[in-house]
User: What shape does this take?
Amino acid sequence: MLTDSPSATNDQLTNDCPAAPDEREAEFVNCQLAPQDDGLFFRSKTAHVIIMVVSCLILLLSVLLRSPNSESVELGAFTLPELCTFKRVFPIGCPGCGLTRSFISISHGDLATAFRLNFASFFVYAFVVAQIPFRAAQLFLVSGGRQVFGETWMVRGLVAIASLLVVQWCVRISMAISQISM
Assistant: This one.
C-alpha cells in the first residue's frame, strides 16, 4: 500500500509494489511514485516553476537591457539606478558587482566587456541557462509522479560560484590596493 506521508522511505514504496513481469517494466509501475508532498520547498512543483520562470526572466532582461558604458544600465529611454548598496556604503563594489552588466554584455555578444566587468559572470550565466532545461525535466518528472533528479550538483555549483565570486573580488581589491600604493 502506498503512503503519501513524508516519512515513507524508498524501501516502503518499493516493498509494497506488485511484482512486475519484467525488470524494465518495474520502473513504470505506480509503486515508483514519489510522495506527493515531502515538505521540502525545492522538491515541489511550485519551486521548479518559480526557478525556471526567474531564470527565463533574467535571460530575457539581459537581452532587453543595454549598458552604454561600464557604469549604467538602460531599459529603453530609462536609466536604471545603481542597486549595489555595498558600493554606496563602501568605496568598493561587492563580489557580485558587474554581474548585471556582464549578463547584458554576454547576451549581446560582447564577451571581452563581460570578462572585464566580472569574470565569474560566465559561470553564473551558464548556471542560470542550465536551470531552464533542468527545471523543465524536473517538472516533467514531478508531473508524471516520478522521483526528481538529485540536486546536489546545484548546491555544489552554487557553492563553487559563490567561492569564485569571492576570489575574484579579493583579486580586484588587491589590484586596487597595489595601484593605490604605486
Notes: The two ends are 75 Å apart (CA to CA). Confidence is low (pLDDT under 50) at residues 1-39. DSSP finds eight helices and two strands in the chain.
